[in-house]
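Entry 14. Structure prediction run on the chain below.
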Amino acid sequence: MNTIIYKEKFKNLYKEVKNNSEPPIYIYEFNYSDVNIEMYINDKLLFKFYTYSRETQDYHLINHYLNNELAQKLKIIVKPLDNELFNEQSYFKVMLSSFDKKSFFDRETWDEELKKITEYSTDEFARDSNGDFAVDKDGNTIGYIKEKRLEGKPYFEKEFEFEASIPFKLPNVLETSKDLRKLDTVVLKKQVVTYFNRFIKSVNNSDDDAFFWETMYRKAYLECMANYRSEEEINELYENAEFVFSDKRVTFLPLEDYEMVFYNEGRLVTLESTSSDLKKKGKSVLNLELRQEGKEVKKSNKMQFYFHIPKGGKELEVIF
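Output returned:
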């Protein structure tokens, strides 16, 4: 019965989305090179990249990271690669913007329709004679390099405040969820690992479908509601979930090299990879493989789950 409920709820999620007023869509664009970078919105991890010497560009819809206040916070942490210092190619640029959802599907009009909120860039990094500050190429101080942290390497940290709001309420885990840092960490970690392992088993064996569809629905719900996902976008998410569950070529590898990490002032928890492989470090522990004729044709570690426990509850729930 639960299988039918959550599978159908996922398929019909657009009906719930369109019951709300259409919000502005907030988008975060960035590019960077020769740095390791972490970005957070309201203490929720947007992403971590630990990669070598390549320029990277991307964007994210961020409505589901917003809180219910007008004031929002963005934090960027930038670290050197292997060396002790940032080099001449160390660079990042970020831009926050908003636009109407209909403009999202017409890239040719993005430059005209985007309403820029804030933009920040640094062309290169250096250290002054005292070794205390990160400065830009013109010698202007742009941030304090905090020593004796992050394995003894310097790093750059910048926080921005910006205003953003949507015309309906999002879940406020600071009010409704337990501070998971106060729980027994051994017990909590066991619960989180058990959940991940159950999900892996459900996919690899194509069973426990009620659990699988409840998980995927809960993961999709907040992101789809907040970003006002279209019927076509939700159908694509549903079809991707169906493919992962049903196609025998798809498997998840066993969990390995991970740590438990808290976000949103301890209300959210997940597992992240501690692998020495920088393509995996800090990313999800869910490593998907797609094999065809016995050969690996695709790998992905993009699927991640963030859990909370509602006040008064005892069980972990996926929130996105």
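The two ends are 23 Å apart (CA to CA).
Filed with the rest of this week's runs.
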